[in-house]
Amino acid sequence: MELRQLEYLVAVVDEGGFTKAAAKMHVAQPGVSAQIKQLERELGERLLDRSGRTVRLTEVGRAVLPYARAALGAVAGARAAVDEFTGLLRGRVVMGGVTIPARLDLAEMLADFHERHPAVELSMTEMDPATLLDSLLAGRVDVGLTGLGAPLPPNVAAEVVLDHPLVVAVRPGHKLDGRSSITLAELDDLPLITLPRGTGLRTVLDGAFAEAGIRPQIAFEASEPYFLAELAAHGLGVTILPLPKARLHGDRLHVIELTRPSLRGQLGLIWRTDGSTSPAARALVAHARRHLAQRTRTEAAE
Predict the structure, then answer these.
(1) What InterPro entries has UniProt attached to this entry (predicted)?
(2) What is the CATH number of the domain that holds 141?
């Protein structure tokens, strides 16, 4: 049994097939298939069910997979220990995120990290909040940026990066136009335009509506705040946005303070705290926290 065979097995499972696994490992697909077949011959059991349109683990494969991950983790840990001893930082780190506000200047942060640690392979991918949290817990992502709303697992820490009041926004001429404030209860029976379930902002809203005993009328859902504002500006409903997002459309939307209760939308940096992170991942977390804290202070001063 070779380490490479275990790497290919885990890659096929994580990527959902041989083609994507081969691309991730930068090898030809037949090579991945051959190595896994060799592993199956050595173990005397099929690990993957190839009979359907998608590749799935067999019962034996499900039993073997945790040991494969543990073996790869042990090797990575040994390499990390040597790297820490010699002072060389290397490895691979992945950052995940939802739609990122431009004012956080994430590109500058990642470029600065790459310049400081050129031996670290750095990548980033956008994903929805639920997938981001699952990927973080599974170790496929090392640090993430996501909306905060629901409680996080005990082994995940969060640091608030952006914190803004939520406001109601309608187009000029709407029946709410001219109001300076509105309560949550007054939104009952109005067509609402919000982010999808699972996002931080939507979780905050759903919790507030549930506590007030209100079943909101959700007319439109979209993952991009800009599109929510566009829908409201065209008179398709009432939207609820963080104040800076609503102000971007000040000439087309009337902004109303949301009271009783006042709600806030938060974007947070999240990372694992269970000791399973590599030195490179810990360095990225520390670097991101410093950078984003500076951006937050700059925004507060403006």
Answers:
(1) HTH-type_LysR_regulators, LysR_HTH_N, LysR_subst-bd, WH-like_DNA-bd_sf, WH_DNA-bd_sf
(2) 3.40.190.290
